[in-house]
User: Which sequence fits this backbone?
C-alpha cells in the first residue's frame, strides 16, 4: 500500500525536477494517477471523485481571487505613482537594497502573514521586491523563504486554532518559540544569500539584528497566546528595524515615509478588520463523509479591491488599465488556477480514501503511519513540512497529521507537547516549498519559469531549517 500511496507524490517531484515539466501539465497527470489508484486499490467509488474535485475547485477560486486582487492593486499603485514615491522614500531610508529586502520580506511579510495568511504575503511582497529591481525568480525565492517562521501562528493563530484545537491546553507554544530561535536567526542570512551570496558577510550585522528583532517579540508572544507571536514578531520587529535603518540617514523623514507607505498600512488594517468581523460567519459545506469546505464572506482578495475603490475616489484609473491593459495577466492566472485546482484535488483525494478498503488507512495516513516509530521526534518536523508541501497550508498539514503524530507520541511514550511543537514548526517551514504557494507568487510577479527551478533554490534552506529544529529538539529540549 505504501508504494501506491507515494506514487503520485513521486510522480510530481520527478517530473518537476527531472524533465522540468511545468506544474500545469504535471498536476492533472498526478491527479489522474491518484484517481486510478484510489478506485482500483482503495476501492473508492468513482462518483466520490466529485468531492475532492469540488474541494479543489473552491480552494483554487479562493487563492485565484487573492492573486487577482494583488495584481490589480500592483497595477493601480504603479499607474498612480505610489510605487515610485515609495521607492524614492526607501532610497532615502537606505541606499543598500539588502537592508530594504530584509525590512519588507522578513518583517512586513511576517506581519501580513500574522494578520491575514491565505498566501497574502507572497502576493504583496514579491511584486514589491520586483519593483526594487530584483529578478523575479529571486523575488519569489526570497518571499517564500521569508514566509516561514511567522506561519506557525499565521492568520491570527489559525493553524493552531483549526489544526490543533484539541491540544492547546498542553501549553506547548513556548516550545515552538524555543525551537524557532536558531532558524529565526538564520533565515535573514538565507534571504541575503538568495539575493546574492557575496552579501552575507557584508550585511551580517543587519541580518543578526533582524533575527533578534523578530524572535524576541515572537517568543514573548508565545507566552501570551496563539494570536500574538507572529503579530508581535513581524510588527514590532518592523518598527525596530525601521528605526535602526533610519538612524543612519539624515534625509529620511518618518512622516513622508508613512504617507507613501499608507496604502500598505491601510491594506493591513482592512485585512485585520475584515477577518475580525467576518471570520465567525463561515458556512461549513459538507463534501461527503470525509471532506468539508468553509465558505465565508471574507477573502483577502476583497481587501485589495476595497483599498483600490477607496483610493480611486482620489486617484481615478481606467478599469481596462487596472487589469493589465493590452498585456493582460489573465492567461497566466488561468494556468495558476488549473494547477492549484488539480494539486488541491489530489491532496484531498488522498485524505478521503481513509476507510474504504477493509477499513484500511487512506493514502495520506499510510504515508504517515508507516513512518511512526520511537524515533518520531527526529523526523516529526519533516512530516509536518511534507503536509504543507502538498497542500500549501500549515493549517491543512496540522489537520492531517496532528492526530497521527499525537498517536505516535502516546504509543511510544514520547513528549507529546514536543511532538506537537515539531509538527507545527515543520508545517510552517514547509510553507516555503509548498507547490500552491510557488504557483501563487509566480502569478503575482508574472514569472513564466518552471516551478522546479524555484524548488531547487529553496530545498536546501528548507532542509536546513528542519534539520536544525530536529537537532535542537533532541539535544537541548
Assistant:
Amino acid at each position: 500500500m505504501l508504494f501506491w500511496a507515494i506514487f503520485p507524490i513521486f510522480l510530481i517531484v520527478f517530473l518537476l525536477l527531472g524533465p522540468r515539466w511545468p506544474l500545469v501539465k504535471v498536476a492533472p497527470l498526478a491527479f489522474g494517477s491518484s484517481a486510478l489508484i484510489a478506485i482500483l486499490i482503495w476501492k473508492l467509488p468513482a462518483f466520490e471523485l466529485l468531492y475532492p474535485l469540488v474541494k479543489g475547485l473552491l480552494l483554487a477560486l479562493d487563492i485565484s481571487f487573492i492573486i487577482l486582487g494583488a495584481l490589480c492593486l500592483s497595477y493601480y499603485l504603479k499607474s498612480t505613482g505610489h510605487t515610485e514615491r515609495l521607492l524614492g522614500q526607501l532610497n532615502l531610508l537606505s541606499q543598500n537594497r539588502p537592508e530594504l529586502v530584509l525590512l519588507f520580506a522578513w518583517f512586513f511579510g511576517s506581519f501580513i502573514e500574522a494578520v491575514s495568511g491565505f498566501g497574502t504575503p507572497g502576493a504583496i511582497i514579491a511584486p514589491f521586491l520586483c519593483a526594487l529591481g530584483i529578478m523575479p525568480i529571486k523575488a519569489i525565492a526570497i518571499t517564500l523563504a521569508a514566509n516561514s517562521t511567522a506561519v506557525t501562528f499565521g492568520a491570527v493563530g489559525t493553524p493552531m486554532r483549526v489544526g490543533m484545537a484539541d491540544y492547546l491546553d498542553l501549553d506547548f507554544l513556548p516550545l515552538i518559540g524555543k525551537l524557532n530561535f536558531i532558524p529565526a536567526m538564520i533565515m535573514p542570512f538565507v534571504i541575503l544569500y538568495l539575493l546574492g551570496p557575496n552579501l552575507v558577510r557584508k550585511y551580517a550585522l543587519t541580518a543578526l539584528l533582524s533575527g533578534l528583532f523578530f524572535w524576541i517579540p515572537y517568543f514573548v508572544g508565545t507566552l501570551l497566546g496563539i494570536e500574538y507571536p507572529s503579530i508581535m514578531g513581524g510588527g514590532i520587529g518592523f518598527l525596530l528595524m525601521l528605526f535602526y535603518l533610519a538612524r543612519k540617514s539624515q534625509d529620511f523623514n518618518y512622516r513622508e515615509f508613512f504617507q507613501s507607505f499608507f496604502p500598505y498600512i491601510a491594506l493591513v488594517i482592512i485585512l485585520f478588520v475584515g477577518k475580525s468581523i467576518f471570520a465567525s460567519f463561515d458556512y461549513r459545506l459538507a463534501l461527503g463523509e470525509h471532506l468539508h469546505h468553509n465558505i465565508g464572506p471574507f477573502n483577502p482578495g476583497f481587501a485589495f479591491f476595497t483599498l483600490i475603490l477607496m483610493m480611486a475616489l482620489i486617484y481615478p484609473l481606467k478599469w481596462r488599465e487596472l487589469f493589465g491593459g493590452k498585456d493582460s495577466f489573465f492567461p497566466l492566472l488561468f494556468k495558476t488556477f488549473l494547477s492549484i485546482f488539480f494539486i488541491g484535488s489530489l491532496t484531498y483525494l488522498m485524505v478521503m480514501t481513509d476507510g474504504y478498503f477493509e477499513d484500511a488507512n487512506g493514502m495520506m495516513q499510510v504515508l504517515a503511519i508507516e513512518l511512526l516509530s520511537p524515533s518520531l521526534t527526529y523526523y516529526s518536523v519533516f512530516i509536518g513540512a511534507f503536509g504543507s508541501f502538498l497542500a500549501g497550508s500549515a493549517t491543512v498539514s496540522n489537520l492531517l497529521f496532528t492526530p497521527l503524530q499525537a498517536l505516535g507520541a502516546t504509543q511510544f511514550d514520547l513528549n507529546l507537547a514536543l511532538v506537537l511543537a515539531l509538527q507545527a514548526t515543520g508545517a510552517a517551514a514547509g510553507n516555503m516549498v509548498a507547490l500552491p504557494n510557488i504557483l501563487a507568487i509566480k502569478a503575482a510577479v508574472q514569472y513564466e519559469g518552471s516551478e522546479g527551478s524555484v524548488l531547487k533554490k529553496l530545498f536546501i534552506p528548507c532542509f536546513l531549517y528542519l534539520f536544525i529544529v530536529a537537532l535542537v529538539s533532541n539535544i537541548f529540549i
In short: Residues 2-475 form one domain. The CA atoms of residues 169 and 251 lie 50 Å apart. The first strand starts at residue 283 and ends at 287.
